[in-house]
Amino acid sequence: MNRFTYYQSPLGQMTLQANDDGLLGAWFEVHTTQPEDLGTRDDSFPVLLQTIRELSQYYSGEKVEFTVPIAAKGTEFQLSVWQALLAIPYGETWSYQQIADFIGNPKAVRAVGLANGKNPVSVIVPCHRVIGKNGKLTGYAGGVERKQKLLELEQAI
């Protein structure tokens, strides 16, 4: 059974969704990738409480790595890209090409970009750390201004 709650982050309200396996999604209110059916609201579900605690620590600068279990659903390729995002160290950025190289598919730069944009677990699976090859901030489903603020928080820019 899927459960959800809301978290008021410094960058706006986030919707968090989880099940017994882990966190399924973390979306800002502007994300269009949220599922229509979030499940049952449960403000005391342990995975959601852990997510809120870790996000609060992240935003306050106390935490650089998340330990909440991730149970995001996607294609095999998407999952490989999202796993690669977890390898980007806090305070660093990688290009889409670096992600494609990391997953062993150097010609899949565009597909990496598409998979990155469909990441359902923003902030925690750090798609905001991916930038263009030229060093420019590129699209972010949560808004480029949020991406910039997240990178500033991490002092990556």
From TrEMBL:
InterPro entries: MethylDNA_cys_MeTrfase_AS (IPR001497), MethylDNA_cys_MeTrfase_DNA-bd (IPR014048), MethylDNA_cys_MeTrfase_DNAb (IPR036217), MethylG_MeTrfase_N (IPR008332), MGMT (IPR023546), MGMT_N_sf (IPR036631), WH-like_DNA-bd_sf (IPR036388). Its main location: cytoplasm. It catalyses: a 6-O-methyl-2'-deoxyguanosine in DNA + L-cysteinyl-[protein] = S-methyl-L-cysteinyl-[protein] + a 2'-deoxyguanosine in DNA; a 4-O-methyl-thymidine in DNA + L-cysteinyl-[protein] = a thymidine in DNA + S-methyl-L-cysteinyl-[protein]. GO terms for molecular function: methylated-DNA-[protein]-cysteine S-methyltransferase activity. The active site is at C127. Residues 3-71 form the Methylguanine DNA methyltransferase ribonuclease-like domain. PROSITE patterns: MGMT. Its EC number is 2.1.1.63. Coiled coil: none annotated. Residues 76-155 form the Methylated-DNA-[protein]-cysteine S-methyltransferase DNA binding domain. Involved in the cellular defense against the biological effects of O6-methylguanine (O6-MeG) and O4-methylthymine (O4-MeT) in DNA. Repairs the methylated nucleobase in DNA by stoichiometrically transferring the methyl group to a cysteine residue in the enzyme. This is a suicide reaction: the enzyme is irreversibly inactivated. Belongs to the MGMT family. This is Methylated-DNA--protein-cysteine methyltransferase. The lineage of its organism: Bacteria, Pseudomonadati, Pseudomonadota, Gammaproteobacteria, Vibrionales.
